[in-house]
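I am writing to request your help with a piece of structural work I have in hand. Thank you for your consideration; the sequence and its tokens are set out here:
=====
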Amino acid sequence: MAEPLRAVKGMNDIFAPASGHWEWLEAKVRELMARYAYRNVRTPIVEPTALFVRGLGEVTDIVEKEMYSFEDRLNGEQLTLRPEATAGVVRAVQEHNQLYDGPKRLYYLGPMFRHERPQRGRYRQFHQVGAEALGFAGPDVDAELIALAADLWAELGLSGITLELNSLGQPNERLAHRQALIAYLEQHLDRLDEDARRRLYSNPLRVLDTKNPDLQALVEAAPKLIDYLGAASLAHFEALRALLDAQGITYRLNPRLVRGLDYYNLSVFEFVTDTLGAQGTVCAGGRYDGLLEQIGGKAAPAVGWALGMERILELLKVQGKLPPLPVPDCYAVVPQPEAMAQVLALLRPLRAAGLAVQMHGAGPEGLSSMKAQFKKADASGARYALVFGAAELAAGQVAVKPLRADATGSIQEQTLLPLAEVGQWAARLRA
């Protein structure tokens, strides 16, 4: 016997009932995106490696340590499983001239891949929902995107999620802050941990995002980026805050919020919760006005966010907000295999009428006993068992057996329904 094959560590198979909760969340996302007039975009899972090196930054953790990259054996092209979707969306918009006729509001759902240590809410194949608005320069669309995320939490019934806000300004302002930050950190080299020393010259902003408790006091006293922002950057940030205030969206200013990717400028934000421990960021994003030009397109402003579906589902579970999963309306009990052809033909119009009908199929040893079938019918959660016995079919009827109590708390008696009236019965049931 061959050795059993298993999934790659950190890449999970998802079956019912969990898959039903994924479908429910995806449906909620699609409904809300439609109300905000965001349209779906689907990009490849595999992209040129250069897209992420150029777009995310050569010294980011993702590019340095986490990407699944490989060489195409046919042509030698360097390819990467997408570690995030924004760069791919921007590449697609640029490649297909999508901004030619005006700005675009887009959203996506799908798997991403990062080679990191699997832990709660953090997997090697994980799934994101993202919203991207391209071609809009004003803080109004920043505020719209933040409101979109806040409305999603309300739609899902989630609580305890806090919005954190900061501005990274423009590249020249960040450069001035970077130089001051490096000079400050150089004065405290003996206090820096190995990770901070590694990032000191390549990506010093990330030092501010350290989780090392021994560095917190040092980081708190570091030069603050907001003190280096010019008038235009400050005006954008103040306008965004005013727009959030006008919508009643509360937030907390976090001058240490820098995000981990090089393409961000101006507004950056995170939605965080204390419920999930170290994986407390459930949604994050910001403005990335330079990314289109950075990957070879015409310069255009853009802003967006992404959320981790696994983390949202975990948060829903912890807060007891996962919905009950749908169950079939009816369970078809088929006592004799000879009736199967007729039963299959009768069930199709029921399903066409909108009923969810689960049929008891034959196993390796044929059809189960009536007792076993009724046990399965009850376990399915169906409201009714439809019994297609030989006598009933011969009389042109089906037996309808209620399996659940009605509004009065009682279970009604089994009745016989003419096969010719099954369609009308189904319509009444769906009404």
Remarks:
- The first strand starts at residue 39 and ends at 40.
- The mean pLDDT is 90.
- The domain at 18-170+230-318 is CATH 3.30.930.10 (BirA Bifunctional Protein; domain 2).
- Residues 18-35 form the longest helix (18 residues).
